[in-house]
Amino acid sequence: MSQANIPNVPLYLNGEKVQSTSKEWRDVLNPATQEVVARVPFATKEEVDRAVANAKETFKTWRNTSLAQRMRIMLKFQQLLRENIAPLAELITREHGKTLPDAEGEVMRGLEVVEHACSITSLQLGELAENVAGGVDVYTLYQPLGVGAGITAFNFPVMLPCFMFPIAVACGNTFVLKPSEQDPTSSLFLVELANQAGLPPGVLNVVHGGPDVANMICDHPDIKAVSFIGSTHVGTHIYRRASEAGKRAQCMMGAKNHCIVLPDAPKDQAINNLLGAAFGAAGQRCMANSVVVLVGQTREWIPEIVERSKAMKVGPGTDRKADVGPLVSKAAKERVERLIASGVEQGAKLLLDGRNCKVAGSENGNFVGPTVFTGVKPEMDIYTQEIFGPAMCIVELDTLDEAIAFINANPNGNGTSIFTSSGYAARKFQNEIDVGQVGINVPIPVPVAYFSFTGSRASKLGDLGPNGKQAVTFWTQTKTVTARWYAPDEEAGGQHHHHPEVRRAA
Length: 506
Fold this sequence. Notes:
This is methylmalonate-semialdehyde dehydrogenase (CoA acylating). By secondary structure, the chain is an alpha/beta fold. 37% of the residues lie in helices and 21% in strands. It contains 18 helices and 22 strands.
């Protein structure tokens, strides 16, 4: 692409694409080629203020649209999203790098949330207790909060915004999204589809930027709630800053997910699942299963795990035969390679080294191949840090009890899973493990969108997660009404039962 043809990514304000006046721009690179595919602006304070002002003004009317009207817009959005899976996936692959099948899968997971939001007519119902005392009724209203905001990570540029705005706007809120500046184009296209579906201008706005824009969102007095998905370091900052500014916040953060394999596990399926969970999306997902805990004689499977990992194909995401695409950036690749080197220095055994991975025809890509370590100890950097690359750490233990204790000693609690044929072992695991999302013979236990995302401990701040019922609670204010109605005076025999306060006020 010649310099002149590189598109500037617009902001999305009040239902229109708007070119930013910012002086600060960043190149968006194709991770498989390093080609500059777009330029993204870091929005100015005035632009962020404008986005919020649009949303605040539109809230006055949007909050009063009927549930059925909001449902119809979501139904239309669902249809448009389904019709645009292919172009959305191509944009994801071009800017993020993940393989096309992975990108299509991501759009499908986003679509699930929009389908769930189509049920808003039954999701936003209150409760009523009649006659709790002489003629008194108590009922709840679930009312929208006002302007919500979402700040998303690079690794799922379509799915993560879908974890935020569809339920928020379906509940009657308006919204400002700050997608990742590393791969913003698919997020913007998603927002355009939502607007095409009939969202009034100003309901859903997009600003781009880095930490400064995220801070403006946390501090802005007219934003009532902030949803974040990304690293623990950034999420902790956003949770504190937004909370101090009086906002509601939910932050889904870093992870170190473990998968226990018991000797009675179905070997072939277990190994296939392990490889997909560790190396799929090049390991760049907060639900990647990066630590494999082999119990008892399953340690004999290590040579086969390594052989099958070696056979995985590394290549650009546009190659449908590729299993592992590039990492998102040069910096990400350098960080992953630095962590692999630290594992060797700290005494882990490197059975498969994905560094210096060369892909013919994509010599400039940020590729790291599947990497496998054994002899991993809890104090090593490859264990304490989220590698966010295609690296599997194998830990060998003797019993299920030891494996559960090992996982519970890790501060993170995003997801964990077990492969076994024993119902007893699976049930013991699900009850004793201190992790919010559990998979039983399922390697990446992200629940379907009509259940809530329930990561726990260091992986989550805020008690309400995205999706499911918790998302409706997060994006609404519960108002409880206690009501009594007196009979009109003429029915009460014409006597005036004025309260003394009422008489004085009159």
